[in-house]
Amino acid sequence: MTGTLRVDGVSKSFGGLQALADCSLTASAGRITGLIGPNGSGKTTLFNAITGYERIDAGQVYLDEQRITGASPQRVFALGVGRTFQLTRIFPRLTVLENMLVPANRGRPARERREHAMDLLAFTGIAGHAGALAGTLSYGQRKLLELAYVLVADPAVVLLDEPAGGVNPSLIHHIADRIRELNSAGRTFLIVEHNMEFVMGLCHQVTVLDSGTVVASGPPEVIRADPRVLDAYLGTETAND
Amino acid sequence: MTPDQTAGKAAASDQVAPDPPATAPATVTTKAGTRHAWQLSSRSLAVAGVALLIAVVGLFPLVFTNPTVTNIGVITLIFVAVASAWNTFSGFSGYLSLGHAVFYGTGAYFLAVAARDWNLNGAAVFWLLPLAGVVTAVVAVPVGLVALRVRRQTFVVVTIAYFFIAQLSASNLTVTGGSSGLLLPVPNWAPETFNNPFYYVAMILAAGTVALSVLIRRSVFGLQLRAIRDDEDRAAGLGVRAMPVKLSALVLSAFITGMAGALWVYFIGQAVPQFVFDPLFDLAVVLMAFFGGLGTVAGPVLGALILEPTQFYLNLQYTNNYESEILFGALFLVVILFLPRGVLPTAGEWVTSGRIRRLRDGWLTRRARRTANRPAPPATGNLS
Amino acid sequence: MASEISQAIAAGILGGGVYALMAAGLTLIFGVLDIINVAQGIFVVLGAYLSYVLSVHLHLDLLLGLLITVPAMFVIGVVIYWLFIRPLRGAERTSMTLLACFAVALIIEGVLYREFGSNYVSLNAWYTTGSVHLFDFYLADIYLIGFGLAVVAMAALYLILYRTKFGRAVRATMQNQVAARLIGIDVTRVSAVTFGIGTAVTAIGGMVYGAISGGFTPNSGYDLISRLLAIVILAGLGSIGGALVAAIFMTTAEALVDVWQPSWAVVVFYLAIVIILTFRPAGLFGHRAVRAQ
Known about the structure:
The complex is a heterotrimer of chains A (about 240), B (about 375) and C (about 290).
Chain A: E1 5-14, E2 17-27, E3 32-36, H1 43-50, E4 58-63, E5 66-67, H2 73-78, E6 81-83, H3 96-101, H4 110-124, H5 139-150, E7 157-161, H6 169-184, E8 188-192, H7 196-202, E9 205-210, E10 213-218, H8 220-225, H9 227-240
Parallel strand pairs in A: 3-8, 3-9, 6-7, 7-8
Antiparallel strand pairs in A: 1-2, 1-4, 4-5, 9-10
Chain B: H1 3-12, E1 27-30, E2 33-36, H2 37-63, H3 67-93, H4 101-117, H5 128-147, H6 152-172, E3 182-183, H7 195-218, H8 220-237, H9 242-268, E4 270-271, H10 273-276, H11 279-292, H12 298-317, H13 321-338, H14 343-372
Antiparallel strand pairs in B: 1-2, 3-4
Chain C: H1 2-33, H2 40-57, H3 62-85, H4 93-116, E1 131-134, E2 137-140, H5 141-163, H6 165-175, H7 177-182, H8 187-212, H9 220-235, H10 240-260, H11 265-279
Antiparallel strand pairs in C: 1-2
């Protein structure tokens, strides 16, 4: 199950604020692409634009060269793009297992759905909490739950918004391992992250966003040394001083 | 280390979730999936309890033959159905409807007009009930298509608006008899047992409604509704088609409420706008559902069974309207302030946390005894 | 006929001003506390009764009486907020506060029934019976006075919101409660005072309503709240300026329909809501997302 996500010349402004300006990037099939950039560079807005939570002013979004620009969140999900949120969005008053049963599941029979759900929970490591209310989970556990339920419909492309944010180190390794495992089966990943170690150690390709445009894109080692990237991060900091 | 252990250790030292959590029950994994430990034995208890309840309710009019008492019984059972139907939509979806009186009244007026125009009387009128339900369900479709597009607070206000439209229309249209309303045919049954047919029909309606509520709660449809309640946009992003789901729940709820309204109006014999469309009606229903436990299946049933007879009693004690209003409002505030989740969930939590505490205390005691008898083992993290 | 229409329009516009004031209170409360105060209608009635008591039992002039009723209603509002709204928390907070407001409204209505019975009363002063001759119709003085009061009150609201430090805090809280807290704004205090202000305006509205309506009872609250809700929904929750426009539009439309078909006039209000919401779920001027849950 794989797919290529391509964003072409996307622009989006909120009133006077230009969040995305002619932004273009590609998450190649079967690769893990990292998306980094200083705060306010438009990463989450881009995710929102791709997954239909935000209307864009200009540009197109393609999934396997099929235009999905402006599709509703339901449609984007049905087409095989899964997405997590920076501040975890789970269903607190449903149990963990019930959370897993919410996503539309392409007509699997009930027993199979439960088993599939439990498999995914075991995969991410929170199977023991299946019967607990999701609202009682700790922050790290919620991140794992989000990862699990986004996988329920076997998405070809997975968008992760800060999967390692605010999570303790050993759990970060665990999450990175899971992503690698899923990727080895062919799934495409586009990951927004601030944790450089996480990104550099995991991603095949890294794209840098600054003030709504892509300033650099390439393998991790190249990006790491790219002066434009340093400029984007440090430049922004000095401007805010 | 295996993923489970890693996650467990890491999770134990993670920051605590921001919202105040309910206590997590101990879980057991069986072939049927993971169940809460206390649910297994509670299930057989619940089944026995329900059977007992049905028996009591069924035999009630045969034991208490006083028509005044069975009168209360009929109205109470009607409210069980209405509260349960309301909860099936509003409790599960989180969209509070304060305009369900519209459905109640539509069913009521339909029956009144149909009974008059088709010249029906006696038991034959009961066959009109499902038809009244269907008509109400059909009315609910355009109502819902407009009302369900807005955010939750606006939704409440829209339902209030619908309520006033309905009330005013009924007062002004000739087909509904204007402000003086319509009279219904009075079946010529023996006065001593006059209430009984109504009672049993109400009982069937109430039982059917609760059964439907249970079915929905356990179904994927019910799960989607509850997901919508927690985070509608997120649910949409996961493929849940919000509008069809919400609308279906509303239509079902309307169907039952319409039947209840029709039964009620036949029982009391007349359809007058200010009684059929009574602003306190919706409030009473909401209070019942809240009192028993919003979103639970048994909650509205309990709420109706307790509050409706109480309301009757209060009306008898205080002949003045205002006293009952003040008490009603005060009761509402008390419930909202002190029992925000309702009686059943709060009681359930006391039971659960009591059990958890006992389990944990027992485990700690046994562990203390073991460690007292040998050198202290190396400290290990407490897996959650 | 033409004079009837002109009179209807004039009365509608002026009457709309007063409704706009009460609706502004509702919008303000919604903007800051995120709750729809369904007790606003009965607050107006309460304000009217307070004016009544001062006028009839203490022989205080209606306008002077406002100097007492406005602060009194402010205090009542703050107390109600503090006792019944502030303690509510949790996932169902917005629904529960709505129901709490309903409950408070019921209690107040019951108390008013108890004190005053269900007889119609009205407010009278030397200026409530006079009328002014405009063009070819007569316009009751009280309409002009009421409109004048509404303008003064709304100007005062505007000054508070846009020219005081407190007003800045209110506007900040309206935009982003969390951020407001982070910069040191005591959101609870702001909420309490806002609720009080939203209630205080009903004292003014109550006095005018009591004088214009020709008679009110505790039951009048339902009619009032339904109109206010209609106005606020039509305008779009959160828009005070929009509330003004919507209020004037509604009362004028109702007055016009009243010329032709009196009993259907009120239905105009509600049908308008339904129609508008079909095409613009956020209201005419609403700028919040349709579902920002």
